[in-house]
Design a protein that fits this description.
Layout: H1 9-39, H2 44-71, H3 74-91, H4 98-126, H5 132-160, H6 163-181, H7 212-239, H8 245-270, H9 272-291, H10 296-323, H11 330-359, H12 361-386
Helix pairs in contact: 1-2, 1-4, 1-5, 1-6, 2-4, 2-11, 3-4, 3-6, 4-11, 5-8, 5-10, 7-10, 7-11, 7-12, 8-9, 8-10, 9-10, 9-12, 11-12
Amino acid sequence: MAKSNLWTPEFLGMSLSSFFQYMTHYALIAALPIFVIDFLQGNDWEAGLAMTFFQIGAVLCRPLAGKWIDQFNRRKMALGALGSFLAISCLYLAVHNLVSLLAVRLLHGAIFAIGTTTVAAMAALALPAERKGEGIGYFAMFSSLAMVVGPFFSLLLSSRYPFPVLFAGCVVLALLSLWCGTRQNPGVFDGKTSEKQSAPLTWNSFIEPKALPMALSGGLLFFAYSGVLVFIPLYAKQLGLSGFTSAFFAVFALVIVLTRPLVGRLFDQAGAKMVVYSGLLLFGTGLIALSQVQGLYGFLAAAVLIGGGFGAVSPAFQTLAIQHSPVRRAGVATATYFLALDISVGLGSFFLSAVAAQAGYPVMYLMAAFMIGMTAAVFYRIEAGEAVIRPQ
């Protein structure tokens, strides 16, 4: 029997739209601390506020995004969210002080949450049921690539040109995201939920209860991952490997790309448990290896293990969160999962930074590995207690 088509114009469009949104996000993460300190004459604390305000906006609006996706016309929702993302990107060109930057970051976080949730939910809806695990894995791969390409793009422009050139480049990326996210067959995403819009608002109007177990599992995973995302540049500097930070993330992303076809098929054919447990084992082993690194080869070997493990488990949890939820609640389920990730990255950055300050980075990465063990234990309890993880 022939496989259903995975790379439809709708799925590819949403994947590319997500890529350009995340590329903009990671480009700004890399450049804004330098912008605050060098251009706005700020300090490290004020540079950190730029990320904090972005996260506040994202956390506040993520639940609303899920409800709106399921309540309103999805294609118009994408047009509005991605158009707003473009408008917010233009505002960086008008930033001349810290207050205006923080205001833009707050709005940007809110719109980013809505835009990324919208395209993720629509990508999941565009996938055939029997290839959903494989498809969501490919979708997640695009954001992983953006994590490498975004900072490279940012540092390339900011090192050679004034900051307005970088901000103009981000406007171009936002325009590409809008173009890719809205050029689909109009009939594919025009549907909306049959729920009454006048129904009373309760907490589960914004949170999908059936997605919460996988959101918890994903949250623990990203708590540990925040130690990699945020602190690898500082750890590399301590090891005398600061010139190889980009190589670490390039290897990380390359492993995800190379293993994605195998992992996606394994999920759909053998079930989630095989992917999740093997991925967690790789991720945990990579964090332990990272804590014991002495030189470049060990540093890059840890990137291979972490990339293979994280690249397998993260899309698996996202797929399960959506599969365990009603189809009409795909938007809320996606938002519930992403909300847990937003919160966990923030908490992980805070607590793991405290561990690093008191005990050093090796101990911090051992603590992150312990959190991966906790993730495996929680997943086991969910799978054993609810018996909901099945091969597709």
